[in-house]
Amino acid sequence: MKFGVVVFPGSNCDHDAWYAVSQNLQQQAEFIWHDSPSLGDVDAVILPGGFSYGDYLRCGAIAKFSPVMSAIKKFAADGGPVLGVCNGFQVLVEAGLLPGALVRNAGLKFICRTGPVRVETTDSIFTHQAENGQILQLPIAHGEGCYIADQETLDRLEREDRVALRYLDNRNGSMRDIAGILNEGRNVLGMMPHPERAADPLMGGTDGLVILSSLAGAYAGHAASHSPASKI
Amino acid sequence: MSTITPDVIAAHQLTQSEYDKILRLLGREPTFTELGIFSVMWSEHCSYKSSRIHLKKLPTQSKRVLQGPGENAGIIDIGDGVAIAFKIESHNHPSFIEPFQGAATGVGGILRDIFTMGARPIAVMDALRFGRLDDPRTGDRNRRIVDGVVSGIAHYGNCFGVPTVGGECVFDESYDGNPLVNVFALGVFRHDEIFYGKATGVGNPVIYVGAKTGRDGIHGASMASAEFTEASKQKRPNVQVGDPFMEKLLLEACLEAMKTGAIVGIQDMGAAGLTSSSCEMGSRAGTGVEIDMQFVPQRETGMTPYEIMLSESQERMLLVAERGREDEVLRVFGKWGLDAVAIGEVKDDGMLRVKDRGKVVAEISNRALADEAPVYNRPYTKPLRTAPLHGPDVHSGDLLADLKRLLASGDLCSKRWIWEQYDHQVRTNTVAGPGAEAAVIRIKGTPTSVAMALDGNGRYCALDPREGTKLIVAECCRNLSVVGADPVAATNNLNFGNPERPEIMAQLVESIEGMADACRFFETPITGGNVSLYNETLGVPIHPTPVVGIVGTMPTAEPIGIEFKNDGRDVILLGGYGTSDTEQFGSSQYANVIAGCVWGTPPKLDMNYEKRVQTTIRELVRARAVESAHDVGEGGLAVALAECCFGRDEIGVEARMNSALSKEFLLFHEGPSRVIVSTGNPEAVFEAARKNSVEAIRIGATLKSRMAVSNQTETLLDCAVQELKDVWENSLEHLLHSPHHTPVSVE
Asked: What is the pLDDT of residues B4-19, one digit of tens each?
């Protein structure tokens, strides 16, 4: 499977995402520059963490105008898997691919720590290898990770089983402890915790791999059933 | 042009004799622009004029050192064709005037020093010193400074994408009017990727890249070379404003441009901006540099050549490209959306020639600026010492209450509130981060990890700068050894008061000499660093605070932490119970926090013994013969034991000791060369200790959730781990948020 990792000016977890999928997960991975009008032949896209364009306005507010975002919108509309992590989640929300907004943390401070996150649904290409209710130790590192939405949106997310991940130790004030959500098509996941930082035993844990390998596994299953000449 | 009057000279912080030297070197009166250029290059900050003759005493070379002092950063070989560049630098004065931007640009400055050499920054650490948080007069201001500095460091490092992996933070009255912000950065590259700040190749274009030049930071270098007075508050415009996003683009663009092979030399514009980068690059190469101000990208209108040359606007670099290949370089900067403009060229005459629309406004020999600054052998006497030699008798009314007060004190409590604001994981190399004995960063693509630590005990140095500094070097090496690393090389940041006072100068001289001895002994040459003098406000100097950053190497492996991992393990103390010496006890945190005064001398250091202890623990950690390892540092044995219990599972300890020391001394005296380990294989520990002639005492065993300590038949401490951990973990947040009292209940 081939992952594309988008690089905006100011992305700083791009290399970490690339390393996790290419080295820890042993899949193909390449970088996609922000002004690229196409995604090439990638099978999944990762929008990595960082401070796209400095994030001096609202996080992700400038990145949504990047040329690559038109390609990503089309890719997502066609059912292509898109994973947005941290700043990537903020970009997806700003771009309208996911509902709600991410605002300053409740304590108004940047928080970097590893904490427990519960898998709320296994009905997605990002979480199907996890057990329902499985608790993952995942790092967060953000200043604006407080997820908010109107009640109707929140109710709808819950009703449609689109809350993918929830904090057990909600430090940023997110409504209903939401750490990650899916789009309607369940092929776009935005999450504030960093799975790529928990993909190597040396870094203190490998709980994040379940997200990345679910994605690779879904593709392998899909490729096996549809195309014997899989690209993997 | 203004006329140069004695007032103008004094306003540039030049003495009459320095001005006379300028007249001699030029053979004429300087222009106003030239005077400005001399004043920043000859400032204490840029020229090291008070410290230079003493810095020569430091060891700077070893087989591993590829680049010693004199470049933007030191470089050492770590094997497999890979090298690391590292340095520490201060931003003390700006951080006092404007804490957030002062600290932020401190991070920005040291990061540029690293990537200007071609290395990608992969770790930052900070040594911070603040005034006391619970002082009714200054507490409010000190809390604001802490908050600003920490947010500033977080803002810059997090956005840039470099992990802040450790450091230290101390609160003391002596830093009330003069906080210290020392930032260490480390980068990695291959040997064939190293770049130097040299303007070689006559006819090659000189290219300006990065942010536009504004009026910010003009005379920052000379500001950093003067004491603070009430008038300093008016110097706020001297503090620069940082843009970490711009710096991130500059990093990526520089590293990419270096790969073209068309860059022959590059240097960041740090202190003294365009002035220092141009004349230092010319001086190193023995060439001339001619630049015209009209081509310099400017963000304000009407800037004079004087202002452009002295501006300390951030996120700028000067580079020299191979003639005919400029476009390859410019194309890369264009891709990253950065200004890159040829502003001049390399000449063969050794001069820095500054033009303004073709008209020469300054013409000075590069060597005169960079290498011929005045050097002073300032008079020195006995080091300033305010503490008495003898102190009160020490009798604890309640040992447990004393332990809790120590664990709640600013210096010893958990610094989680600080380091949780720093992204300490980005780049996914952090094997051991904040809170560990030393930070450990794996180097991807190699079997090697790099360990690093900062130390700088000003209280010890105030009592004896020479012995205090040796203890600092020893502790820093011990921190590395405890995580399993071999100490390899060092960088230093010498923070002192006004060197024109002989008793302050004596502190500096003795500290450097102590550092030279210890660095020679531990084979950790100093590869670069920074001197920050005039750290005084209204005549009150800081504690002499030499901060040492030492880096070491080790095979990459899962870390062995400070905390006990399992119950039922043997707990062994390497290095023995220590001594009963009332004078040495006066330098301890117990004296400082509980007795409320400091006296006497720092602990005695036997460097030979220290080295044997370090060898022992390094062998044990590498052989995985211990499950945890923690050195006994400030606060003594009781604090160290408590810290061993503060793991996620709160594994405690039952220690039954047999020592003739009084209970206060046994629990709280401080001394080097001691390490606590827990192990399931005590024989291996005793065997390693025997082999290295190090004392090893089994003091007890780990158990679940309780810390109990007794000596002979007397119970000294008995408490739930949770109770101690709460005090330790939450104290800093309380100190920072509740005014005017120590809020943590210690009863």
From this structure: 899 889 989 999 999 9
